[in-house]
């Protein structure tokens, strides 16, 4: 059983409040990541249902290290957009305190999921389409793979995050138009 990792950059849709509460998207449906993978809507449903039935939770780890849990994901669910998580980084744990300080300083801004692929296919573009995943953990990490999801500082508002996301989309569109004209 191979454990795989998929990274998301925190912020924008991810909020950190009170220095230790975190919520937002750990994965987006339909987004091509740097590993050329695309997670389909519903990919986590079976895994989340099984965890719920057993009374288990998705683990919050530091850098995918199973010996370094740093908090608790109180809520993990699929929405129309992707995998939404809400939890608490534990300030009573040394790595938790470090994670809080690093997020506040802007040194850490990534989320990454640890999972096992249950069902996948390849599309005509050579992308791996992930149809069913067994979710094991969501980690705070240094290097994200899916740039669309980022962690914001405690003072960020959702409007600020939406404006940054819109600006990034417009910048990408402008670059595409410029390259098409060249």
Automatic annotation (TrEMBL):
Residues 18-155 form the Prohead serine protease domain. The keyword Hydrolase applies. Keywords: Hydrolase, Protease, Viral release from host cell. One of its GO terms (molecular function) is peptidase activity. GO terms for biological process: proteolysis. InterPro entries: Peptidase_S78_dom, Prohead_protease. It holds the Pfam family Peptidase_S78. It comes from the Bacteria. This is Peptidase U35. It comes from Marivivens niveibacter.
